[in-house]
């Protein structure tokens, strides 16, 4: 028997226990994949402050983070590999006691600090509990690198929602993520976890756009952090206007192209050379160098005219610097209300003027 990895109609993870003789989950209707009976998985035990309930999302042994609430996985919750019998969703009695203790602590804290409910969004984690779990799940640089490689089941997953981890929580914003991910498709929704700001969710318009963003941006260094991206099992992102750290771009006019624009055909891998368009004629060479030097070492710059508009190619000393420039400067609004368009260029080098 195993825990159902599906979701109920209300968006909550399914809590039903599946048997091999069944073809569908009786609770959520999920069509049972026989392979799940051979996988080691648990139900996420993290207590969500706003709901006072366990997260409950399906977590496999090779995952390092829950892609619903961002909880850093404590692998002590998994049954020992030396044990016998079928792997089930429950933990040992000692760990069950730990969960109950954490749950009691959480409920007590909620009653004593009811005002926190207005500060925390569903799906986010409590820092005190996170510290408790991280004592035995802290990641060394070596283990983080190896764990971030997607397991077979995660690489094959499909969907429009991506789980993003290892963001620079001191400087990341939904706007900066939009500027980067919009290179590879129309971005619908972006959410940063309130209590775990180095993780978040990005919902793209189509599965094709999500696949392009994952393929181009996974393992890219962003603001001194190596980005880790994988498909999320979350079916939808709540966009309630009271939720903080969430941005809905579905009706935004800031997309790089229209609904029929072919993002996949124009997608370019991150590079040290960026392309700028919609530059006002009043902008001079020294102005461009002065502004973009804030984000890295500018090696070359070429200004050109295309279809009556001024554009430029600029080369940084590294890809990371170019990524930062795009996140900071794309959609910059000029006094005449035009917006600067910045993207990666297919050019690897350029010839500077005179």
What's this, in brief?
The protein is of the alpha+beta class. The protein has nine helices and 17 strands. Mean pLDDT is 74; it is low at 83-155.
Largest sheet: 5 strands, antiparallel
According to DSSP, the number of beta strands is 17
Strand content: 15-25%
Radius of gyration: 23 Å
- Secondary structure category: alpha+beta
* Average of per-residue pLDDT values: 74
User: Roughly how much helix do the residues carry, as a percent range?
Assistant: 10-25%
Euclidean distance between termini CA atoms: 72 Å
Strand order of the largest sheet: 12-7-9-8-13
SSE topology sketch:
Elements: E1 2-3, E2 17-18, E3 41-43, E4 47-48, E5 53-54, E6 58-60, H1 93-112, H2 127-134, H3 141-147, H4 152-155, E7 161-165, H5 174-181, E8 187-192, E9 199-204, H6 207-217, E10 221-222, E11 225-226, E12 228-231, E13 246-248, H7 263-266, E14 273-279, H8 285-292, E15 298-306, E16 309-316, H9 319-329, E17 341-344
Antiparallel strand pairs: 1-2, 3-6, 4-5, 7-9, 7-12, 8-9, 8-13, 10-11, 14-16, 14-17, 15-16
Helix pairs in contact: 5-9
Q: Would you mind describing this structure in some detail?
A:
It is a single chain. This protein is 23% helix and 20% strand. With 354 residues, it is of the alpha+beta class. The strands form six sheets. The protein has a five-stranded antiparallel beta sheet. α5 crosses α9. 32% of the residues are buried.
Which descriptors would you attach to this protein?
single chain, 354 residues, alpha+beta, 5-stranded antiparallel sheet, 4-stranded antiparallel sheet, 9 helices
